[in-house]
Amino acid sequence: MKHLLRAFLNDLGGNPNKKNALNETVLHAACQLNQNKSFSVQERKASCVQLLLYWKGVTLAGGQREKVDLSAQDKDGNTALHWAASKGLRRCTELLLAHGSPLFIENNDKLTPCDLAMRGSHHDIARLLESRMVFADNNDTVNEDEIIQEQDEVYSGLRSQDLQEAKDQLLVDTSDMLKIPLFTAEALLRNN
């Protein structure tokens, strides 16, 4: 997933601020989570969010480069932070906060990201958001060095971790498709 997003942003000149029919940006989609809440899925989502947050687009009139819009709201008024908080994506929430995502925007139901975290029983995220709402100034941002490492490189291929994830997924899919044990699927893939 990360390598496709990286290719979209860097090689194809994609703009993550474009919206779909539901008025969602790519950042909204990256912060959504279906029933699969495994740690690896959450980490892949966080990696995608991190790529999006470091995206630099065309040069604007003021000389600054376009960045991903953290205030973008979908048809229901939810920002990416609303989605990350409601789905229990703590790392995504931390990344969004570190980049200055607005805390006080209410969706169409008059709920903030903190309200949605509480509603979804994600109390650790709700506490994080609540403490930021109470104690942080509007200009205040979290020290990004504590959360993420700076990405200086622009890379558009499979990294070793991405390649390993793709191999592992192929192995599991082969095992499921042929209804054979994982070690047998691994032997089949290794010999072909």
Write a short abstract of this structure.
The chain is an all-alpha fold and 192 residues long. The chain has ten helices and no strands.
Structure commentary:
InterPro entries: Ankyrin_rpt, Ankyrin_rpt-contain_sf. Keywords: ANK repeat, Repeat. It holds the Pfam family Ank_2. ANK repeats lie at residues 76-108. 52% of the residues lie in helices and 0% in strands. The protein is mainly alpha-helical and 192 residues long. The chain folds into two domains: 2-155, Ankyrin repeat-containing domain (Serine Threonine Protein Phosphatase 5, Tetratricopeptide repeat); 158-192. Helix 4 runs antiparallel to helix 5. The longest helix is centred in the last third of the chain and has 19 residues, at 160-178.
CATH architecture of the largest domain: Alpha Horseshoe
Top CATH class of the largest domain: Mainly Alpha
Number of helices: 10
Q: Give the helices and strands as they follow along the chain.
A: HHHHHHHHHH
- Low-pLDDT parts are 144-154
What is the fold's blueprint, element by element?
Blueprint: H1 2-11, H2 26-30, H3 39-53, H4 80-87, H5 90-98, H6 113-119, H7 123-135, H8 144-147, H9 160-178, H10 182-191
Helix pairs in contact: 1-3, 3-5, 4-5, 4-6, 6-7, 9-10
Which short descriptors sum up this protein?
mainly alpha; 10 helices; 192 residues
